């Protein structure tokens, strides 16, 4: 039986299949304002960083049992990402998650300075190899969709990237990338749709010169699809090395 034609005037169906929206509904609790986390500098200083084993390439948090120099994780061994290396400071859980959710969806202040301090301390400490001497990268934030930027009035990765670049003394380029689509938050999509959601969603503005070395900053690393899409756009425009740094990592 042929499919019935859509009634005139009826809106087109959802961009993603129903299962996506069901999954999204189940995660609506993420949009609710969380119990007020303590976001004082002393509280943020106590947020537990992930210090266990990570994939040397994508930074995936590995379960125990790995030595000091673990091998790349399965996905990286099968298909290395376009970016050179990625690292995340915290698990996307507890007050780390609550602070990001509260800032993005409830308009509450985010402890930008305190989180930037934690990132700075780590970048000059156990992540010091990410910034080689003599080849300082330019800090580039993952851009927000213009509609989201207009609604929120800020882009969290850009706020953090700006402070971090000043604190650590690196160039800052918030306009190296622009976002053309990808309005559904990655964390609210099943993994098989995250790449589709951001595929081709980022581009380097026409005529813009891309820095050779880039430190790409985002708030949360979920599947890596966003970092991959950004890295493809940047490397297609001449970037040679891309280090991805995120505040948190959503552990599946
Ligand atoms: Zn990996």
How would you characterize the overall build of this protein?
The structure is a single chain. It contains nine helices and six strands. By secondary structure, the protein is α/β, with parallel strands linked by helices. The protein has a single domain (29-249), classed as Rossmann fold, CATH 3.40.50. The protein has a four-stranded parallel sheet, with helices on both faces. Helix 9 links the parallel strand 5 and strand 6 (241-249). Helix 5 (112-123) crosses helix 7 (156-168). The chain is globular, with a radius of gyration of 19 Å. Residues 1-14 have low confidence and may be disordered.
List keywords for this structure.
disordered N terminus; 4-stranded parallel β-sheet; 252 residues; Rossmann fold; alpha/beta; globular; binds zinc ion
* Helix coverage percent: 25-40%
Number of helices: 9
Number of domains: 1
The ordered H/E elements are HHHEHHEHHEHEEHE
Low-confidence stretches: 1-14
- Class by alpha and beta content: alpha/beta
Counting copies of identical and different chains, the oligomeric state is: single chain
Strand composition percent: 5-15%
Radius of gyration: 19 Å
* CATH class descriptor: Alpha Beta
Overall average pLDDT: 84
Order of neighbouring strands in the sheet with most strands: 1-6-5-2
Shape verdict: globular
Count of extended strands: 6
Biggest sheet record: 4 strands, parallel
CATH architecture: 3-Layer(aba) Sandwich
CATH structural fold name: Rossmann fold
Cα(first) to Cα(last) distance is: 41 Å
Q: Which distinct ligands sit in these coordinates? A: zinc ion
């Amino acid at each position: 039986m042929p499919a019935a034609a859509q009634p005139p005037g009826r809106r087109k169906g959802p961009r993603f299949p129903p299962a996506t929206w069901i999954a999204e509904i189940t995660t609506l609790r993420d949009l609710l304002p969380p119990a007020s986390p303590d976001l004082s500098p002393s509280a943020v200083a106590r947020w537990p960083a992930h210090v266990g084993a990570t994939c040397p390439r994508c930074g995936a948090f590995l379960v125990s049992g790995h030595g000091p120099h673990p091998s790349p994780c399965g996905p990286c061994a099968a298909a290395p990402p376009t970016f050179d290396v990625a690292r995340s400071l915290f698990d996307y859980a507890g007050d780390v998650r609550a602070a990001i959710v509260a800032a993005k969806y409830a308009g509450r202040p985010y402890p930008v300075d305190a989180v930037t301090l934690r990132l700075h301390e780590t970048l000059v400490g156990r992540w010091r190899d990410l910034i080689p001497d003599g080849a300082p990268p330019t800090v580039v934030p993952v851009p927000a969709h213009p509609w989201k930027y207009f609604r929120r009035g800020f882009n969290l990765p850009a706020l953090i990237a700006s402070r971090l670049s000043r604190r650590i003394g690196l160039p800052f380029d918030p306009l190296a990338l622009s976002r053309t689509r990808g309005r559904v938050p990655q964390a609210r999509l099943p993994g098989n749709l995250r790449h589709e959601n951001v595929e081709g969603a980022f581009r380097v503005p026409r005529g813009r010169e891309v820095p050779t070395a880039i430190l790409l900053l985002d708030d949360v690393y979920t599947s890596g699809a966003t970092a991959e899409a950004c890295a493809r756009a940047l490397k297609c425009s001449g970037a040679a090395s891309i280090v991805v740094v995120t505040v948190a990592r959503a552990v599946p």
